[in-house]
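User: quick one, sequence for these tokens?
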């Protein structure tokens, strides 16, 4: 069994999810986000009285107030295979105010897996399926050339999150074509080759 609750935030309604023990956050999705609830195979039951939800809401309130809470403050248990877990672990290392490319993550994953190389597209798939958005900061991943490739929560939200974190946006740009230009919050990115 999984429980969920909602939070109204500066970027819209956010759904939080946890397992039946209420100890770990397993999901955070924005309204209209692609793959909303995708990691959870069962229906979620609304329960607003889980301690992990209180902790996550306080973390998010601090985040949206411009503070820099760290990922390790919350017990997280994203659901996914070893490869995705490895990518999500790398995302957790990206500092506030910084971005990383899909290619950079591919190099890190290749080293972790003792491989010569790794596909940026495979990395993009894992980044796009991150079930704990914002807290596991997949919005800090950009194309090799500075392109603000899409974001499962919508590229406009990605921009707002990066600006909130004080990212230098001067070298980042909206691509002229591709899925990143979609305006609905339900669009998913297709990472550029890096």
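Assistant:
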């Amino acid at each position: 069994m999984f429980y969920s609750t909602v939070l109204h935030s500066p970027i819209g309604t956010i759904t939080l999810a946890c397992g039946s023990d209420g100890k770990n956050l397993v999901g955070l999705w924005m309204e209209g986000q692609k793959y909303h609830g995708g990691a959870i195979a069962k229906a979620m039951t609304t329960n607003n009285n889980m301690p992990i939800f209180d902790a996550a809401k306080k973390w998010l309130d601090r985040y949206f107030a411009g503070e820099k809470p760290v990922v390790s403050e919350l017990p997280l248990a994203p659901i996914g295979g070893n490869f995705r877990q490895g990518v999500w672990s790398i995302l957790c290392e990206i500092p506030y105010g910084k971005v990383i490319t899909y290619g950079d993550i591919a190099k890190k994953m290749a080293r972790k897996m003792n491989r010569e190389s790794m596909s940026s597209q495979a990395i993009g798939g894992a980044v796009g399926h991150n079930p704990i958005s914002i807290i596991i900061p997949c919005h800090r991943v950009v194309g090799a050339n500075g392109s603000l490739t899409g974001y499962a929560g919508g590229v406009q939200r990605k921009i707002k999150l990066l600006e909130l974190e004080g990212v230098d946006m001067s070298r980042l740009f909206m691509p002229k074509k591709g899925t990143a230009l979609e305006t609905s919050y339900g669009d998913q990115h297709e990472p550029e080759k890096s």
